[in-house]
Amino acid sequence: MICLLPLLLLAGAMSAQDGARLGAELQRIEASSGGVLGMSAVDLDTGVSIGWRSKERFPMMSVYKFPIAIRALALMEGGALPYRKWFKLEPSDYTPGYSPLRDQYPDGVVRTAGQLLELMVRDSDNVVCDFLLRQVGGPKAVDLLMNRLTQGGIRVDRSEEEMNADFDKMGAKAFVEDGRDSATPEAMTQLLVMTERRRLLQPKTTDTLIRWMTETQTGPNRIKALLPPGVRVWHKTGTGGTKDGVCLGTNDAGVMMPPGGAGRIAITVFVKLSTKDRAAQERAIAETALAVYRFYRDASSK
Question: Rounded CA gap, 77 and 239, in Å?
Fold first, then answer.
């Protein structure tokens, strides 16, 4: 790996001129975001990786449901958490935060483990996430798995309810400095690559996870917003709150899949501590994804 610009890292046979051009574009995009932008991407065909603040830690927000899902699916494959096991969610299980399931069934509901997992991944339901997190051994169990897979690059420490309460008390800057439930863009992209290459779960299980992450309606203005027609994206978003004019984080992590299957790109884009509105942050994510997509496509045509 060689450093072509501050915080822009490249591996592989890329020209310094191409890297400098992309670095200048990312610098402009970061300024437009009103905060700190982190990005890591890997061309799955060539292995060429690029990054912008790729080793810096960012709060994951709901992107952390992706590691939780991997832990849950691994338990399902091993029989420790049967996919068709029934669970009843009582009103006492309901917590504040985003939850389509709670809003639709205020008096409680019965669902299988598989159905709940789909709701957590596809709909980013916070109540379901906290319920499933308890079923898979809690944050420590997920963190142990992530530590093994990413050597500390991804941390899972609290429930959604605990994170929301801590944010209300701490505010954005102190929450970020705390470091819990954070990840480096590089580590999250590493997890995406391992998933896409079917190295973590059985192929059929992975196909199901990717289908949920493709069907999700969250984040239409992020990674996939500006990509050319026909490029599909499977991804997980994360959205933090704003306090005292500072947004905790706006995130997206996924795989861009051009028509035909060649040229797949795993990418993570995190924005933290922005003083601009959500639209500006999402635009920065979309522009970053497009710049990275073009960078790899131009390189492959040379």
Answer: 30
Give the helix/strand (H/E) hosting 67.
helix 65-78
Classify each residue of 112-130 as buried b or exposed e, where b means 16 or more C-beta atoms within 10 Å of its C-beta.
ebbbbbbbbbbbbbbbbbb
* Digitized pLDDT (tens) for each residue of the chain, 302 residues in all: 323 344 455 555 466 778 889 999 999 999 999 999 999 999 999 999 999 999 999 999 999 999 999 999 999 999 999 999 999 999 999 999 999 999 999 999 999 999 999 999 999 999 999 999 999 999 999 999 999 999 999 999 999 999 999 999 999 999 999 999 999 999 999 999 999 999 999 999 999 999 999 999 999 999 999 999 999 999 999 999 999 999 999 999 999 999 998 899 999 999 999 999 999 999 999 999 999 999 999 877 76
Q: Across the chain, which distance is largest between two alpha carbons, in Å?
A: 60
Q: What's the pTM value of the predicted model, to 2 decimals?
A: 0.95
Residue 175: partners with Cβ closer than 8 Å, 6 or more residues away = 59, 166, 167, 248
Q: Which residues on adjacent β-strands are paired with residue 86?
A: 112
Q: Is the dihedral of CA 161, 215, 54, 190 positive or negative?
A: positive
